[in-house]
Structures are given as C-alpha cells and as structure tokens.
Amino acid sequence: MGLVDDVRADGIGGLSHNAITGKLEDLINWSRSRSSWPASFGLACCAIEMMATGAAHYDISRFGMEVFRASPRQADIMIVAGRVSQKMAPVLRQVYDQMMEPKWVISMGVCASSGGMFNNYALVQGVDQIVPVDVYAPGCPPTPETLIHAIETLHQKIEDGEIMKRRAETGAGANLHVEEIASTSVPVLLGTK
Amino acid sequence: MSEHDPATEMPADESAEADEPTGPEPELLHGCIVAESLGQTVVHPTREQFLDLMKALADDGYAMIVDLCGVDYLDHMSRPLPDGVERERFEVVVNMLDITHRRRIRVRVQVPEAEPTVASLCDLHPGAEAYEREAYDMFGIVFDDHPDLTRILMPEDWIGHPLRKDYDAGRIPVQFKGAHA
Amino acid sequence: MTAPTDVNVERTTAGEQEMKSRSETTARELMRELGAVLRMSEAEAAQLGDLPDDPDEDQTMILNMGPQHPSTHGVLRLMLELQGETVLRCKPIIGYLHTGMEKTGEQLTYMQGGTNVTRMDYLSPFNNELAFSMATEQLLGIADDIPERAVWMRMLLSELNRMSSHLLFMATNGMDLGAVSMMIYGWREREEVLRFFQKVTGLRMNHNFIRPGGLAADLPPGWRDDVLRLLDIIPERLEEYDILMTGQPIWRERLQGVGVITPDEAIALGASGPILRSTGVAWDLRRDLPYLRYDEMDFDVIVGSYGDAYDRYAIRLNEIRESMKIVRQILDRMPEGDYRIQDKKVTPPPRARIDESMEALIHHFKIFTEGFKVPEGEVYVGIESPRGEIGCYIASDGSSTPYRMHMRAPSFANIQCLPHMMRGGLVADAVAVISSVDPVLGDVDR
User: Fold this and answer.
1) Which stretches of chain B drop beneath a pLDDT of 70?
2) Which of B75, B41, B58, B55 lies closest to B163 in space, CA to CA?
3) What distance in Å separates the CA atoms of residue B120 and residue C13, rounded to the nearest whole number?
4) Which of A9, C114, C136, C404 is the most exposed place for a label (fewest CB within 10 A)?
C-alpha cells in the first residue's frame, strides 16, 4: 500500500495528508511541538539568558523544554546561544550532524544570527553559514520573552507541519525572523517567605 | 578624595635604590631606565637585560605577574619613550604586583620586527605561560625556552598574527537593507 | 646546641638554613607538580585516535571534555589524561570563544568601547566597563574630577553586580555537583538583582552604563526602595542556601579537600580573587589598593585556609553578605550631584539642550561620530571583579580610538590553576574544580 511505502521511505514524517493519516500526522506534529528538547549549546552571554529562560521566572518547562540534553542524540532543537568563533565552527557542525532528524535550529542573539557587533576575523558572521537556521531571535542578549517568542514561533510551525517539508525539498532552514520583545521591569517577588 | 590611582601608593624611595643621577643620565632601576607614566612606574630594559631585571624585581617583592601583553607600534612609531630607549616595532608589556608592599610596576621591552624573540618568564613565573602563548598567537613574538609555544586563541593551523597592525580586522561590508518591521 | 645523647636524631651539618631568594626559585620548586600540565598539541591528540586497538591495560587514556559540555561553564575544552578514573594531567584548551574584542576595540571610539568590553566577562559587565572607563579617565586626566555621586553610583552597581555574579556561581556550582534545585534558587535571586539593573540601565545584561566621565544616566526615582527590598529578601535566602548546602555532609564530602592549591602556586600562576583568598592570602584590591570610595567602606575580606573548593564556595557565599553590607552603607551615604563629569569634550550634552543650542548639537555630533580625543600615553588600571583582578591596559596615540586596548582577564590566569588543582583527583572532582574556579570563557578568550 502507498501508506506503508511512504512510511518505509521517509519515516513517520513522510505520511502524506489524507483522510486516514491526517489525524495521526496532526497528533505527531502536536506532540513534537510540545516536547522538543533543546541541545545545550550555550556559548556566551546569550547562554546566560537562555538559562534564565529555563529558570523559575520565565520557565520554558511549560513548553516542554526544560530538559537541556547534553547529548545531541537526544535533542530536537539546537539553540545556538552566543558568538561562534572560527575555532568553534567545526564543533558546531559536528554537534548539528549528530542530532537526529527531525531537528531545528534557533539562532539566538545577534552574534549567532549575523556576527553581531563583532564584524571581524574571529567570528563566523552568522551561524547560518554553517547550519540551516529556522528562527532568528534578535537582541543582545535577547530578553527571555524574545527567546520564548522565538521558541513558540517554531513550535507553531512544527505543529502546522510545513516546516518538515522544506527540509526535504531545499535543505534550507525556515528563516523566520521574530521581533524583539522588551523585558518588563516590574519586580516580581518569587518564593515564599 | 578622588578615585585613587592604585600605583601612587608606592613608597617614595622605591626608585632610588639604584639611582645614578649624574646630570643628563636617566634614572636607573637595577640597571634599566625607569620612567613615570601617569603616576605609574615603568621600567624599560633592553632585551638582554629583561630576564635579569625580572629576577631582580622578583627579589624586590614583585611576586605576581598580573599581565603580559604585546603591542604593535607599527602605526605609531613616534610614541613617547624616555631617552636612551631604542624603539622597535613590538613591545612586550609586563605588569607586576607586589602583594607585601602593595605596589605595582610595569616593564616594557622593545622587540625588533626582524628578530621577534624575547626571553620567557615561565621558569621564574609559571603563570606567564598562557600570556606568552597569547602574545605569540596574536603578534608572533617568540619566547625562548617556553615549554609549549603554540597558538592559544586561534585554531592551531591559523596563518597570520591577528593583532598586528598590518593584519586586517576582517570586516565584512554590510549593506543594511530594509529591516523587518 | 648539643643534642641529647639518647635521642636518635639526625642533625644537619650544613649550618643555618636561609630562604632562597625569589629570583633563584624556579617553577619546579614553586609548583607541587610541574608535570600536571599536559603539553600536547591538539594535532598530536587528534592523531591518538589512530592508535591500534587492543591497548595495554595500564595505558593512560587521553579524554576530551568539552568544548560542548554541560559542566564546563562555557566552551572550555579540557584534555584529561586519565588512569582509570583518576586525572593525571590536564590541558585546558581555550579559544573557542575568541571574538577579537581587542582588535574590535581598536576600531571603536572610547564612548563605544564600553559596549565591546562589557561583553568580555558577561557575568559582571559593570566591572569590565569600570576598568575601561577608569583607564580612559586616567589618560584624559579627569580621574580626580569625577563627581561624587557618579563614583558612589559606580560602587553601588559594582557591588550589586558582585552579588548577582556570586549568586550565579552558587547556582551553577550546585547544579554541577548535583544539587539541581540550586540552579533554580540561584536564578530566582539573580532575577531580582537583574530587575533592578533593568530599571536603572535599561538592560538585564551587558549594560554599557559606566562610561568614561561618569555614567550614562542617573538613578531612577524610587531606587532606594528597590535596593532595600533586595537587601530584605536576599539574607534569608542565603540562610536557605546554608541549610541546603553548607552543612550537608554530601556537599562537604564533594568539596572539602578537592581542588587544593597552595598559596605559592596561586601567586606564581597569577591567580587572584576568591582563588587566591581561599589559599590564605588576604589580598583584595578593594581594601589593599582601593579605588572608587572603597577605603571609606567598612567591610571584611573573606579568607580561606585550605585552598580547596569548599573554601572558595564559602568565600563567595560570604562575599555576597559583605557586598550587602557595602550596599547598605552606600544607601545611607549616596550624595546628590551630577552623574557624570560636566566636561563638554567628554560627556554629551543633555538631549533637551540639543534643540536649543548649536554648540550642544555640535558637541553631541562630534562625540558620537568621531569621538573625543584622548592624549597620548599608556596606563594600566586593575580592579576587583567577582573573579579576581580585572585590568585594562590602554595605549593611546592621541586619536579618538584606543591604539591598543588589552584587558587583563581574571579567568585567563585562573584557568592556569586547573591542571594543578585536578591532579590526582577523579573526573567527578574535575567538574567540581572547574565549577569552583568559576571561569567565564568570554573573559578568557576575549
């Protein structure tokens, strides 16, 4: 049957939408978006904001992402947080290659997206020269709200299902740009007395 | 009181140890020319005097090397230097700290471009190892008897010494198109 | 001196013993084990993978830790030579975050330089900016004319930054040793401090707020209440950390006696900050070579005795308390006045004046495009950051950009201590050691 051949060829993601498999595909995409685990690739200052996003106040655990997997084999999203130097570029590519499909890349911060304020010999001017990027989050560093906005944009695209097809066709990333959201400065008292 | 410059806390007779003030002759500290720069003592040894000066300073109490860096004066050869100091293209600048007496001192060695070698301080101060590797990486200054003189910041097979003035910054011209709203 | 005849004692015939002069003391005598540093180039290490299979059982193994690793505090790569689980030698390989900041610093004006240096030690950005600004002010000759309020504001922000950096140390140290909930607790307090920073500077991190001449803006109204709120919350949270970690037997087992470094080694390697203080050397630049108004502040310098990781943890925990003490004194004594020097050549005019006065517009334009010119000279300024001595060496050629800007990064020297601390320990102790040294790789690689 065509269905079995599709799954044999491309795995579960190769299911083409029809009345029988439509619901299954939605279920799979829904579960992928709700439980995408990031590979810890914190490099510089953005890593601190990424850790802050994982902490109690901004809490990406509500989006299913609090487990930063150290091993890329177990990760879905690579959040490149920080500036990528010439020496680090091969390492970045190697970690990206070790991740299993389906995988996505969020380029966090201006240094990862474009080289940032360091337009010089030492940095790769944009991590999209090495890996295909799906979402670019601007900011130096992006506030945790911006990072959550970027993550949620990616999750929305995963849930819609379109993002899986573009990788098969062109190999390029989704190239979504999100806006920066300024952080609020209202103090929040956390924890109990 | 104003922001205190830490170096002005030195005892006043510090540079009078080996003073030989005979007319136009410059002040000497352990046989090397010494000067003041914005309230901080700076010693200018020649390359030959460098290691002996460092040993003498270590005996004086300057036990910690705080910083060792290189400077490339290719675009600014006319920098102010005391009389008697032969100016070269590179300089190795060593900042030292005396914990017991709470004072700092700076040592500036002139290193010629044709033969950019200078004695290594690793045997006397093991902490200079990483700094000397960085100076080698960034400027190409070779330190004799360094235990492991390889590149530290750039990849090991990188060609060129980035902080030299004739090494381009590597700016990629950026054209700012209409940014996303 | 005659020895009792019935005691079997060997006495030396060499006479009175004298201490060797420092100039004759070589590295081999200063360090406990000079061979703790693995001297193998990366190319050689890469070729080790081509060794034939079926190795000898006693052969030591060279294992790579990092650069992408959850516990190496950033992109630090360690080549460990292991015998079983014991670390024999180690080589820290850095450069994975090298950003060419010193080269970029030569292209940016002194006003823009703050944006560059603040990203070096990204956990204590105010300290980087402070070192750079102080060095620039020394070159300009205005170091004595900075207004009082500006100096006190700088001190306030510096101390709050020390608190937030040490809180982050608590968090990452806990997580590295397994107390994962500490990560969440540490960040909770840090959020409070970062919110204050955001209220004052507009950014949570990398503020570019301390600039040559003063600061970028004044403290917002209501800042006193915010700081008082911080000082109310944090002490009891520190008590919680004491209960959670300090007295716990597992915590003590994991940290006491781990990562020991001797005072001679620490000074010889150029280590500073909590590492030097943990060995017993009571050296704190705020007290010994004071800058800003630290000589008028009443605070203690916390010193350890054993030079191990537990001492460093305890030092940092108590330094948070000392910083709070200093902040309280600053709150009481903060003077009124300008937040930046009123020298037209250095500080831009207030924005409202630009509409009124042509001269103000021209000054603003010149300062922000060309930058102010700094007289020729060279200077080194060192201050106490949470990690140790951070210094800025600027050589100026009279133009509006630094000719050579070099930052003395504390973590660069502190990382040299790693092989000597890890020798003979287990791999799990290696994680504890790195965490106790608290390196920031942005500082190391610049």
Assistant:
1) 1-26, 175-181
2) B75
3) 37
4) A9
Instruction: Give the class (CATH, top level) of A37-177.
Output: alpha beta
Which positions ≥6 away from B159 have C-beta within 8 Å? Answer: none
- What pLDDT was estimated at residue B178? 56
**What integer pLDDT is reported at residue B160 of this predicted model?**
87
| C-beta separation of B174 from A119 below 8 A | yes
pLDDT in tens, C15-60: 666 677 777 777 777 777 777 777 777 777 777 766 666 666 677 8
Domain-wise residue ranges, chain C: 108-445
Across C103-129, average pLDDT: 90
Angle, alpha carbons C400-C357-C341 (nearest 5°): 50
* Domains within chain B, CATH numbers bracketed: 6-144 (3.30.460.80)
Q: What pLDDT, on the 0 to 100 scale, is given for residue B1?
A: 36
One-letter amino acid at C94 equals I
Task: Mark yes or no for CB contact C380/B154 under 8 Å.
Answer: no
- What burial letters (b/e) apply to C259-274, b meaning 16+ CB within 10 Å? bbbeebbbbbbbbbbb
CB atoms within 10 A of CB A10: 14
CA gap C395, B75 in Å, rounded: 12
Cross-chain Cβ contact C195/A185 below 8 Å: yes
Domain C108-445 has CATH 1.10.645.10: yes
pTM of the model: 0.87
Is C386:C162 a contact under the CB 8 Å cutoff?
yes
Long-range contacts of B69-72 (CB under 8 A, 24+ apart): B69/B93, B69/B131, B69/B134, B69/B135, B69/C393, B69/C406, B69/C408, B70/B111, B70/B135, B70/B138, B70/B139, B70/B141, B70/B163, B71/C395, B71/C403, B71/C404, B71/C406, B72/B139, B72/B163, B72/B164, B72/B165, B72/C404
Chain C residues within an 8 Å CB radius of B98: none
By the CB < 8 Å criterion, does C442 face chain A? yes
Give the CA distances from residue C403 to residues B10, B75, B121, C345, C377, in Å, rounded to whole numbers and listed in that order.
Answer: 28, 9, 26, 20, 10
Q: A91, A110, A119: which to substitute to probe chain B, counting the most B Cβ within 10 Å?
A: A119
Q: Supply φ then ψ for residue C383, to 5 degrees.
A: -130, 170
